[in-house]
């Protein structure tokens, strides 16, 4: 039996469907909006970060120069000592006796020279009248000369004894921070021993020894000679990062680069000097140094986020070419400068490099370039013309546009 309500229900459904508004078809989309930076030539400060170790500006290992017993230690370990300050006192009794003996020997030699010279003068008068043999006269002259030589020898012996007496008091050869004492009072020391009594280090200023690839050093020298990089008249400046990650507050200067290359590592040693008035730097600390090598007058830089690598590992970017169409470019990059790459070839001033919005782009696709800035939204991070910065959502007013 046919239900009489079926036609009526079908008619109602048809009327209801006709009464609903039809969904609008999606509007055709325009060119994709991308954030770009316009390449410009600008001066670039070239820096390089190198590992290094600190070293004392001066180091002196204190050793005895005479033998004897240590009578007293005259300093406190860890103190700052000055050049010439007494450090140890060795028993000087034997050396005092040696000085007295040398003085007596000198007096005896001086007395002998007086008598020998008088004898030579008398023989000189007698030989003129042939009262004595000439051989006796010559012997008298020789004895007088030997007496003079004996006086000189005894004077030297007296100076040697006095030097040994002074060395019985061991003094600081340089000014600096003194370390722990290896010997104590009553220890027997020898002038020929190899072990130092203590060590003095001058810690202000401080050396920092850095290692750099000889290839990088050669490349920089060639750039300087070619005029591509200028250093100015001043020495290269160096900044330090300490072991805890903090930045050392005082800049240093480049002292010299070693003239030889380590054949095992292919590196050169570069020495910088740093003021150390507060004693923060200690010998043997591991540091990282940022060395300012010079300034490249006309460098081209692009943000690192705009650069990708192809299957061969070459650096590539997308640029907005003629007709606002995407073009790929292969770059040669020299080094990272902050958040940018320094480009040596592949770009020229005026090129528009795509920084954001280029993930799904293909060569030849039309795009809408918008100036990009790395400032966050709310701090000038929106592009000119009221457009949203790439990667930032559009406002309702922009959507209405």
Question: Can you describe this structure?
Answer:
This protein is an alpha+beta fold and 401 residues long. The chain has five helices and 20 strands. Strands 2-9-13-12-11-14 form a six-stranded antiparallel beta barrel. Strands 6-5-3-8 form a four-stranded antiparallel beta sheet. A hairpin with a 5-residue loop joins strand 15 and strand 16. It starts with a helix and ends with a helix.
> Helix count, per DSSP?
5
Strand order, largest beta sheet: 2-9-13-12-11-14
Given the C-alpha coordinates, what overall shape results? elongated
Mean pLDDT: 80
Task: Draw up the topology in text.
Layout lengths: L4 H15 L12 E7 L2 E22 L5 E6 L6 E2 L4 E5 L2 H36 L5 H34 L1 E3 L4 E3 L9 E2 L8 E16 H13 L2 E2 L6 E5 L10 E6 L9 E8 L11 E18 L4 E2 L5 E6 L5 E12 L2 E6 L6 E5 L10 E5 L24 H5 L1
Parallel strand pairs: 1-20
Antiparallel strand pairs: 1-19, 2-9, 2-14, 3-5, 3-8, 4-7, 5-6, 7-9, 9-13, 10-14, 11-12, 11-14, 12-13, 14-18, 15-16, 16-17, 16-19, 17-18
Helix pairs in contact: 2-3
Task: Write out key terms for the chains shown.
6-stranded antiparallel beta barrel, disordered N terminus, 35% strand
